[in-house]
């Protein structure tokens, strides 16, 4: 994937540089506009340069954190606008804080930051609109073909039907080969009836192919290894279907995994000693910061739940439930109670969308994830992290381990309050939903890093602010 990744990095770097120029220029113009409309003298050079540089740097950092420079960002234009708004709003807050505390002698005009922030949001939205519609800056996708048109190749057709799923590549078509299960294979995609022989090199060159994805059902005796080797030597990327899906969708296709892929693939390495050493410190600090801002809401939530039905039934406002944690160790998770006291009188049940057991207050606190706030105590205890796969109940885990391959591997990391699966998969509760969520959980286990944690954390804030998710 080196050639493809290099192209993606170059395109992302160009995007960062162009947007840095736009942000800096707009921030400068905002100063000129504020000075001319208010009749006040323009800020001195040092103040202006400091404000512009700090604002530009912060907007770029927060834009990076919310995924605006991801080469494979899968988002509607409305979602991109939300991310731009969140990144500029966070930058505005931090600049106000820095200026009021550390740069009191170089305060800009009170109207400067609001005008600059609004103009930056407008400019970036317009810019993103044009580059997405017109394909400016050479940000077009990689030209890709797929060898195979059977059951394995059909996973691309099923999982990546929308245009937004294929923003990072241009799929020219699928090449059927002997051994493919055509009955369960490609149905609606373009088929390329090309012989994979000596002339295949000419086909690759004539069509300017950047990447060949291997997705055939039977490899033994069907793959032209020498020809693919020659393509690789010539700089054409040759990618396994599992790697392609992992890169493009942010998930690992569990039902297509095979042992040798796991053995030879990068990742699944937990020997990050610095990360492990700082894990509790980082999570403890984050829990303290969140608690500092949310304790009034927690007290109000507890009071409302008590007045709603806790006073009549004598049931606690908190709900304690056994869950499976790191390495299969059991612990009790804490939540604000969002269901009726008799919700599980008949035994453990999957929670469902529009669950009739959920109270009126429960529907609201679930939508905005307020019910999860008591889990800060689980973080302090070291039982959970801020980021990680959501912990499941032991009754369900036993069944899921039997029904879903590799399910137990999600317990190789601490469970979290927020997770990659929660951001990428709609709410659901069944064996089938657990299989889909596992694909994202294993992607997190494989790629866990501080930057991925920060991305998940910031995008989770977006979910809470806009009430997305459940």
What can be said about the biggest beta sheet?
A: 4 strands, parallel
Strand content: 5-15%
- The total of beta strands comes to 8
Query: What order do the SSEs take from the amino end to the carboxyl end, as H and E?
Result: HHHHEHEHEHEHHHEEHHEHEHHH
Biggest sheet strand order reads 2-1-3-4
Q: Rough shape? A: flat
**Rounded average pLDDT:** 82
Helix content estimate: 40-55%
Low-confidence stretches: none
The end-to-end distance, rounded to whole angstroms, is 35 Å
CA-atom Rg in angstroms: 26 Å
- Can you count the helices? 16
Q: Count the domains.
A: 3
Oligomer: single chain
Would you tell me the structural class of the helices and strands? Answer: alpha/beta
What does this 3D model show about the protein?
The chain has 470 residues and is of the alpha/beta class. It is built from 16 helices and eight strands. The chain folds into three domains: 2-138, no CATH class; 142-249, NAD(P)-binding Rossmann-like Domain (Rossmann fold, 3-Layer(aba) Sandwich), CATH 3.40.50; 273-466, no CATH class. Strands 2-1-3-4 form a four-stranded parallel beta sheet. Strands 5-6 form a two-stranded antiparallel sheet. Strands 7-8 form a two-stranded parallel sheet. The radius of gyration is 26 Å and the shape is flat.
């Amino acid at each position: 994937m080196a050639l493809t990744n290099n192209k993606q990095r170059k395109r992302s770097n160009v995007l960062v540089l162009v947007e840095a120029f736009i942000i800096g220029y707009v921030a400068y113009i905002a100063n000129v506009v504020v000075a001319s409309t208010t009749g006040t003298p323009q800020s001195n050079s040092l103040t202006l340069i400091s404000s512009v540089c700090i604002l530009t740097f912060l907007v770029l950092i927060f834009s990076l954190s919310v995924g605006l420079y991801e080469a494979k960002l899968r988002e509607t234009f409305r979602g991109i606008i939300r991310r731009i708004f969140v990144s500029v709003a966070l930058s505005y807050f931090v600049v106000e804080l820095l200026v009021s505390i550390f740069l009191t002698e170089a305060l800009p005009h009170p109207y400067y930051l609001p005008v600059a922030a609004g103009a930056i949001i407008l400019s970036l939205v317009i810019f993103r609109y044009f580059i997405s519609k017109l394909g400016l800056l050479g940000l077009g996708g990689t030209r890709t073909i797929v060898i195979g048109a059977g059951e394995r190749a059909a996973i691309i057709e099923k999982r990546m039907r929308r245009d937004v799923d294929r923003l990072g590549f241009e799929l020219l078509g699928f090449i059927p080969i002997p051994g493919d299960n055509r009955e369960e294979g490609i149905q609606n995609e373009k088929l390329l009836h090309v012989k994979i022989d000596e002339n295949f090199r000419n086909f690759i060159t004539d069509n300017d192919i950047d990447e060949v994805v291997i997705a055939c059902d039977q490899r033994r005796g069907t793959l032209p290894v020498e020809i693919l080797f020659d393509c690789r030597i010539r700089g054409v990327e040759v990618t396994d279907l599992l790697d392609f899906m992992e890169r493009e969708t942010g998930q690992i296709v569990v039902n297509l995994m095979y042992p040798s892929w796991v053995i030879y693939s990068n990742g699944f390495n937990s020997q990050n000693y610095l990360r492990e050493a700082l894990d509790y410190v980082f999570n403890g600090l984050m829990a303290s910061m969140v608690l500092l801002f949310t304790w009034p809401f927690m007290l109000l939530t507890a009071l409302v739940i008590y007045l709603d039905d806790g006073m009549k039934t004598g049931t606690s406002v908190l709900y304690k439930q056994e869950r499976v944690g790191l390495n299969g160790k059991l612990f009790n998770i804490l939540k604000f109670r969002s269901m009726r006291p008799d919700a599980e009188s008949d035994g453990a049940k999957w929670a469902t969308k529009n669950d009739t057991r959920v109270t009126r207050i429960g529907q609201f606190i679930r939508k905005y994830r307020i019910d999860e706030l008591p889990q800060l105590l689980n973080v302090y205890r070291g039982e959970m992290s801020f980021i990680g796969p959501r912990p499941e109940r032991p009754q369900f885990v036993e069944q899921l381990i039997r029904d879903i391959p590799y399910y137990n591997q999600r317990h190789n990391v601490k469970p979290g309050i927020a997770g990659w699966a929660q951001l990428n998969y709609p709410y659901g509760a069944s064996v089938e939903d657990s299989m889909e969520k596992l694909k994202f959980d294993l992607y997190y286990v494989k790629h866990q890093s501080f930057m991925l944690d920060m991305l998940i954390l910031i995008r989770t804030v977006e979910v809470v602010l806009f009430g997305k998710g459940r």
